[in-house]
Write a structure and sequence with these properties.
This protein is mainly beta and about 170 residues long. It has 1 helix and 10 strands. It has a single domain, classed as Immunoglobulin-like (Sandwich). Strands 1, 2, 3, 4, 5, 6, 7, 8, 9 and 10 form a 10-stranded mixed beta sheet that branches. The protein starts with a helix and ends in a 30-residue tail after the last strand.
């Protein structure tokens, strides 16, 4: 009887814990054969009553995975690494082209092709790790092109470091 109670409590706790963060619409960008890097995009939903952050990422598809964003500097879109991506309590953040994303650096199996899947582990500030399976999509999937690939207007940015992310 005690064993059944313990198992039920453990299952209930893991179900509640697992449902605190959701990841939806994940995909990784397909690459041409010579390109050593790619990026992954997704929506991350924080179902808790506390602010949390994505603090790191790892992937089976690359040697290194980093959290990145873009910002307009002197009329040129620049990409850079960020220490974390904040997600307010009971809200979400979308990792998308031209904004936050997971940069996959040093692809292990080049190129990434459609119908492949990339495994990404997101680590959060609350200690939770969420495993994401992202299908690989065409290079232009999800991109909003204008002015030869550059964003037409600067988006408002802010993040854990205080300098990036969608407001």
């Amino acid at each position: 009887m005690k064993l059944k109670s313990l198992l039920l409590m453990a299952f209930t706790a893991s179900t509640i814990y697992a449902s605190t963060i959701q990841v939806e619409n994940a995909y990784a960008r397909a690459t041409p054969p010579s390109l050593p890097n790619s990026a992954a995009f997704m929506s991350v939903i924080n179902n808790t009553d506390k602010d949390i952050s994505i603090v790191s990422a790892t992937s089976d598809a690359s040697k290194v995975a980093e959290l990145h964003t873009h910002d307009m500097k002197d009329g040129i879109m620049k990409m850079y690494q960020v220490p974390k991506i904040d997600i307010k309590a009971n809200s979400s953040v979308t990792l998308k082209p031209g904004g936050f994303h997971v940069m996959l650096i040093g692809l292990k199996n080049k190129p990434l092709k459609e119908k492949m899947n990339v495994e990404i582990n997101l680590k959060f500030s609350n200690g939770q790790i969420v495993k994401v399976f992202a299908p690989v999509k065409k290079v232009m999937a999800g991109m909003k092109m204008g002015n030869h690939g550059m964003m037409k207007k600067k988006e408002a940015m802010s993040c854990g470091a205080g300098k990036c992310g969608s407001k």
